[in-house]
Amino acid sequence: MDQSVAVWLVLAVATAAANLPYFNERLLLVGPRRAPKSAWWRLLELLLMAVLTFAAGSILEARIGQRQAQGWEFYAAGACLFVTLGFPGFVWRYLRRGRG
Fold first, then answer.
1. What is the value of pTM for the model shown?
2. What parts of the sequence cross the membrane (predicted)?
């Protein structure tokens, strides 16, 4: 797999994963459906999705070549990017106005 394809793949997965907690009413995407899922569940799911996305990126990086060690700065910037990618789902869930 080409390096640029891997980067775009990780960005696409991160965008989808960051928005899933807001568009889905099931617990952890497969659990029982809850009518009003609380914000704490959504934050927990967002954290889990971020960890899974970082893991997918690490696996792709290891497949391309040698995996580089990262410091806390990388993970802080990645978490901020992940939360930013989830902003459309947040707006759709909490900030959109009802009709009428």
1. 0.87
2. 40-60, 72-95
